[in-house]
């Protein structure tokens, strides 16, 4: 699930959150569970457990676990957002980045554990699978040596670039990332206390892992390609897709675009060099980005 549209990936150096909300587990739970009509599908969670325990048909187990993960994905995003408001922009941004794709990662790990390589390769988890396989190659197999050098070299370059970006954003140019308060705009206030939000974050993650395990275990061999390519990528983002269409119908295009930000980034990324140079001004971070891109390309030709 992607980070909420109002939450920056990494904010300014200010770690102060919003005004602390008193400990109110009942109120926080009510806000979380009654906040959307999609949560009606939460009834599928016990049904999925019953279906797995009683060894119902594969179709029944798949359907119940699939529908159970849809509201869990939304609740995971909601609890992450509420906890982020308490942690401040920097820590909140890191939390959003960590749990932004938690559902997809959990499903991918479940597929890997149960040796469903087909589904994993059809989803974004193919990257994770390739890294895990290349992490311990056969010393006698030299065919993967060049790919392994490229993979590790690119990882090191990207890690150093990210560390440079953190230093740029949190230290030397923090003022560029400070959120500007729009006149008349009210500051977002957390509706859940931090302890309840944190507890629900753990509970939802555990429930999602169990449902994902049932989901992957019920996949029929003949349907692996279709399920891996079509259904699994949708399950973690179903709530965002519904919200995106709903907001578009209401004319709120900013929220619609924000819910599909990853897709937009894929298109915008090809304009990187042009956007960095067209204003006629630059800073060292833009140079670091361009040098990193150059090093990755050079490394790919080297191996």
From TrEMBL:
GO CC field: endomembrane system; fungal-type vacuole membrane
Domain Sodium/calcium exchanger membrane region: 61-117, 199-259
Compartments where found: Endomembrane system
Family note: Belongs to the Ca(2+):cation antiporter (CaCA) (TC 2.A.19) family.
An annotated Gene Ontology molecular function: calcium:proton antiporter activity
UniProt entry keywords in alphabetical sequence: Ion transport, Membrane, Transmembrane, Transmembrane helix, Transport
Protein name per UniProt: Calcium/proton exchanger
InterPro entries the record matches: CaH_exchang, NaCa_Exmemb, NCX_ion-bd_dom_sf
Keyword Transmembrane: yes
Membrane topology: Multi-pass membrane protein
Gene Ontology annotations of biological process type: intracellular calcium ion homeostasis
Region Disordered: start-end pairs: 1-21
Chief location category: membrane
Annotated transmembrane regions: 32-54, 147-168, 197-219, 226-247, 259-277, 284-302
Organism per entry: Kwoniella newhampshirensis
A Pfam family assignment: Na_Ca_ex
